[in-house]
Predict the structure.
Amino acid sequence: MVTLADVARHAGVSSSTVSYALSGKRPIADRTRTRIEQAVTELGYHPNAGARALAGRRSHVIALVVPLHPEVHVPTMMEIAIAVTVAAREHGYDVLLLTNNEGPEGVRRVAATGLADGVILMDVRLDDDRVPVLRAEQIPAALIGLPDDPTGLSCADHDFATAGALCADHLADLGHRDIAFIGYSSGVYRRHAGYAERTLNGFRARAERRDLRFLHRPCEGSYESTAGTLARILADRPETTGFVVQNEAAIGPLLTLLRASGRTVPEDASVIAVCPDPMAEQHSPRLTSVTGPQKDLGQVAVEQVMARIAATAAGDRPEDRLLLMPPELVVRESTAAAPRRT
Amino acid sequence: MVTLADVARHAGVSSSTVSYALSGKRPIADRTRTRIEQAVTELGYHPNAGARALAGRRSHVIALVVPLHPEVHVPTMMEIAIAVTVAAREHGYDVLLLTNNEGPEGVRRVAATGLADGVILMDVRLDDDRVPVLRAEQIPAALIGLPDDPTGLSCADHDFATAGALCADHLADLGHRDIAFIGYSSGVYRRHAGYAERTLNGFRARAERRDLRFLHRPCEGSYESTAGTLARILADRPETTGFVVQNEAAIGPLLTLLRASGRTVPEDASVIAVCPDPMAEQHSPRLTSVTGPQKDLGQVAVEQVMARIAATAAGDRPEDRLLLMPPELVVRESTAAAPRRT
DNA sequence: GCCGTTCGTCGAAGCGCTTCGACGCTGACA
DNA sequence: TGTCAGCGTCGAAGCGCTTCGACGAACGGC
C-alpha cells in the first residue's frame, strides 16, 4: 500500500506539503505541485478513505435510504438513485445504500458512526418516523418527498398537487364532465404517501372548480384488480369518459380493458397518466401524461445535502429549502374531445 | 461525540478492555463486560467508522456495482440489490452503491482507497472489462453473472441454459413443433450479456434434440416493436404455436397482440416466459414461467465476497466458487397441448 | 511449594491522514 | 535600509480505534 509519506519521500517534500498540494487548501508552488503529482501517478497513490475520514472528520459518503414497499414504482426510484450517485460523485462523494428495514435506527447508525456525512430519504411519508431522528441528531439531510412539517429540513419533490390540477384542467378543457381517477392501492393512501394524497387533492380541488364529477378508485394494478376497478367505475358512472391514472402498473391493463369493452382511446374515452415520459411513450396509443423530471430530483437532493453538510461543518445553522418541481403536461394520442352525449 | 475512551473512563477500565469487550476478540470477565455494556448504552456510544477502518484495516463496506443499461429489467436488479444490502447487514457490512459510468476505474478506486473491502458486480458480460481489474488488484469480489473465464473468481447466477432447455422440453412435451423465441433487443446479444446468450443456447440445443423448428427474434419490448416482431414471425412461420419470451417488457404487448390477432392463449398458442414469478402471476392468463429466486442470488453473492474478504485478510488464497442456481418451471395457464394441425 | 498455564486487564504503539502554528524568504513600501 | 506582509514549506500533534506484548492473579499438576 502506498501512503502519503511514500509520495512525500519520493517527491522530496514533507507529507503535509503533499496533503496541501492534493487538497489545495494552501498555496503550493507550481514546481512542487507538479513534482508531487508525478510522484502520485508513478507510485499509484490512492489516499486511504478511513484515515481521511478520521483526520478530516468527513467520510465523503452520503447515505441513500430506499423504500421497500412493493407499491413504489421501482424504475422511477432507481432512476433517482442513479442520479443521486452520479451527482454525488461530482462532489467527490460516494453513496451508501440503506434499506428501510432497519427503520429510523439505520439512519441514526450511519450518522452516529460517521459512516455517512449526510442522508437522503426517499419515499417520505407525511408522518415519517425518520424525520424526528434527523431533527434530534441534527443530521444533514435532504428528503425526496414532503413530510407534514418540513421545518428544519430540506425537501424536494414534484409538485403533485399541480400535476393533479393539470389533469383536471386538460380533461375539462376537452369537454369531459365525468372523470375517474384510478390511483395506487389503498395501502398507499393509508400509509399517507405524500405523492398520492397531494395528486388527489390537487385534482379534486381543480375538478370541483371546473364542475367535474369524479370518482376516485384505488387499484392494486394487476390485470384482475384493474378489471374489477374499471367494471365498478362503469357500473357506478356509465357516463364516464375521462380517466386519470396514477398507477404505473394499471396503465397497460386499463388500455387493454377499455379496448376489450369496445371503447376506443381517445375517441370514446380519454386517458391521461401521471407517469414518467418514457413509460407514456411506450404504450399504444401513446399517452398524454403529466410528470416532472426524476433525474433533477436526485440532483437537487444531492445539492441540498451538500449545502447542509457544508453549513454544519462551518458551524452555521443550515438553511431550510423546499423545492417543488413544476410538472409538465405533454399531450399525446390518448386524449381528445369528449364524445357527444347521446 | 462519545469515544471509546469516554466509555472506558465511565466504566473504570482501560480503552483496550472496552475494545476487546465489544469485539469479543479476547475473553473479558462477565462483570466487567456488563459494566462496559451499561456505559455504552448510558453514554450512547457509537464506534467511529473511520477510526475503525483505519486501525482495523477493514471498512466493513462492500461495493455493489449496478448496471445502467436501459435493457436490464430494473425491478429484478433492485430485488437483488436489496437482498444484498440486507444480507450484508447480517455480516455487519454496509453497501456502497456504484454505477457503471465510472467504468472499471470505479471498482479500482473504491478498493484502492479502502472505501470498500470487496465488490459485487451485477450484469456481468462475457468479456467484462472490470474482471481484469479485479484479478490484477486481487480485489475480493463476487460476480452475479458469468464471464467467459471465471478462474480466480467467485460467481453466482441462474442456470439460464437449463432454463432455456426447460422451455423447449415443456413445449415439446405438449406437442408443439414450431416455436418462436422472443428475446431481448439485439443490443443485449451484441453486448454478450451472458444470461441472454446462455438461455438461447440452452434452448437451441434442447430444441434441436427434440426436433423442434424454431425462430429466434430479438425484440425491443415496446408495443410497436413487439407487434412488428410478432407479425414477422407469423409471416415467416405461420404454423408457429409456441412462444418463449425472455423479455419482461414484451410479455404484455405479446399477449395483447395474440388476442388481437384472434389467437386464444393457450388454446391456439402457448406462451412460456423466462421471468420472475410475481410478474408471471400478474398477467392474464397467468403465465407458465421459468425462473430462479433473485433473493438467493444476492445472498449467495454476499456469502461469496465475505468468504473472499476473510481469506484475503487471513493471507490465504481465496477459493473460487461457481454457483449456478437451478431454475424451476411453473406451469400456469398460458401453455396447453398444441392445437391439431389443419 | 514450585512451575507452567490460562484468564483478565493494561499501556503503548501505531493505522494514514489533516491541520495548526511556526519559520525562512522574497518583495513592496516607507 | 528597515519593516511588514504574504507565500511556500515543514514538523508535530492529534483523529478514535485495534492490537500486541506484558503482567499480576488464580489454579492445577507433580
Chain B has 14 helices and twelve strands.
